[in-house]
Design goal:
Elements (H helix, E strand, L loop, with lengths): L1 H28 L6 E4 L24 H14 L3 E4 L10 H10 L3 E6 L6 H10 L3 E5 L13 H14 L3 E9 L6 H12 L3 E7 L11 H11 L12 H6 L14 E4 L4 E3 L8 E4 L5 H8 L1 E2 L9 H7 L10 E2 L25
Parallel strand pairs: 1-2, 1-7, 2-3, 3-4, 4-5, 5-6, 10-11
Antiparallel strand pairs: 7-8, 8-9
């Protein structure tokens, strides 16, 4: 039985790799579809990490039929990957059906979770639903007043994932402002690799939402984590060297076009840290609008730390210089580019 399960995992991994290659080829061949969409089925979370601005403790889940409409719309756009985030998406009672709907549309299905609600049975249900990628961010080794997402609390959940998950698992650790012990990130990364997962590292903003360079020891840890593990699309992360040094990145942010953030209200935003812009309902988000945003410069881009948007934009770095300034248009609430600032007290979870 164990041998059959091992063979099945290898076959599924090969299938995921093939889908990844096809997605990259399609993305290089055409700019006419989103590459990655983060979608929020529930804003509520069972935790209250002090650095996070992406949750509340009261919101009801989005109705499943409405989630289906949104996913079908993303399917019609030709979207490559949809990652379910929150809040805590495992709190949605019909999460498995939502994952199934993503797969029915031919889209790669991902999930970002804090991991607290995972059990062996829940993982098996995610397998059956067709989940392909899961990410957990672990902020420290021991829980503290900033974050309860600690290795001590979550290690049993990681062991369950190693035993039961048929989907790929990535563990993200963090460095930067507010992290009391940077050595924790290294411990988290090594534990992830020991269990057969991939490992990435994110860099926190300071309390004002701005970049701050890492200290000497933090930089050493950052470079060591960057050198670990397997190569994959989630490890397209050269931009992070500049972030670690507090330097601005010179890049073309394709948020609003190749990357979309769809909130619980069904509105499209540039990203989790630019909620409100452009703030257009997904059902009304036209090809023309996506094309406009593809060519629009974002003033927040040079100091951006949102990894998923950087990674997606790599595929289009070589083409289509951005010549349009962000500003008001007839079909949006987009502000003048000078007003685009990242929300404070937040780290990229993606």
């Amino acid at each position: 039985m164990k041998l059959l399960k091992k063979i099945r995992k290898k076959l599924l991994a090969a299938h995921r790799k093939l889908r990844e290659v096809r997605g990259i080829v399609k993305g290089l061949a055409s700019t006419g579809h989103p590459l990655l969409v983060h979608i929020i089925p529930i804003r509520r979370c069972n935790l209250s990490c002090t650095y996070c601005n992406e949750f509340d403790d009261f919101s009801k889940p989005v109705e499943t039929v409405e989630m289906f409409r949104r996913i079908d719309r993303l399917g019609a756009m030709g979207t490559w990957i949809v990652t379910i985030s929150g809040g805590e998406p495992l709190l949605h009672p019909e999460l498995d059906a939502i994952i199934g709907r993503i797969r029915k549309n031919g889209i790669v299905a991902g999930l970002i979770t804090n991991g607290y609600l995972l059990t062996a049975d829940r993982i098996e249900r995610l397998n059956r639903a067709g989940l392909e990628y899961l990410q957990i961010s672990i902020d420290n080794v021991m829980p503290d007043d900033v974050s309860k997402k600690s290795l001590k609390v979550l290690d049993q959940k990681l062991q369950l994932l190693a035993e039961h998950a048929e989907f790929a698992v990535n563990i993200n650790s963090v460095l930067g402002s507010g992290v009391k012990n940077p050595e924790d990130a290294l411990a988290v990364a090594h534990r992830a690799l020991a269990l057969g997962f991939t490992s990435t590292v994110g860099i926190l903003h300071d309390g004002n939402g701005q970049l701050q360079p890492l200290g000497p020891r933090e930089t050493e840890i950052f470079e060591e984590i960057m050198s670990l593990g397997k190569k994959s699309f989630t490890r397209v992360n050269g931009f992070q060297h500049n972030i670690a040094a507090g330097r601005e990145n010179d890049w073309r942010c394709r948020a609003g076009s190749r990357y979309l953030y769809v909130c619980e209200d069904g509105l499209v935003h540039y990203c989790s840290q630019q909620r409100g812009y452009p703030g257009i309902p997904l059902a009304e988000y036209t090809d023309e609008r996506r094309n406009r945003e593809f060519l629009t410069k974002k003033s927040c881009a040079p100091r951006c730390t949102v990894s998923c948007v950087h990674q997606v934009s790599v595929l289009d770095r070589w083409r289509a210089p951005q010549t349009t300034e962000a500003g008001p248009s007839a079909d949006s609430n987009t502000p003048d580019s000078s007003t685009l600032v990242q929300l404070s007290g937040s780290a990229s979870r993606h």
